[in-house]
Specification:
Blueprint lengths: L5 H16 L3 E8 L4 E8 L7 H16 L5 E4 L2
Parallel strand pairs: 2-3
Antiparallel strand pairs: 1-2
Helix pairs in contact: 1-2
Length: about 80
């Protein structure tokens, strides 16, 4: 999947980062694989938060899929 460059995913993360920053959190892009899986690390207040799974799916994954439909899913790495 050449359409999913690291730069394109970084750019698409902008909206999610803005939302996370409102709550003292952030997200680090670790990589993108050929199957459209985006690997991220939650930072700040999002790291270890009880709502981290919801944040991952409803804020980060949803935002990325809107901009880059080739993304199959987003996974958090601890």
């Amino acid at each position: 999947m050449t359409a999913l460059s690291r730069d394109a995913v970084e750019e698409a993360l902008g909206q999610a980062r803005a939302e996370l920053a409102k709550h003292g959190g952030n997200v680090e892009l670790l990589g993108v694989n050929d199957q459209g899986v985006v690997l991220v690390r939650l930072l700040g207040a999002c790291s270890g938060c009880a709502s981290a799974k919801v944040t991952l799916k409803e804020i980060i994954e949803k935002s990325l899929k809107e901009k880059l439909p080739a993304i199959s899913r987003v996974e958090a790495v601890m």
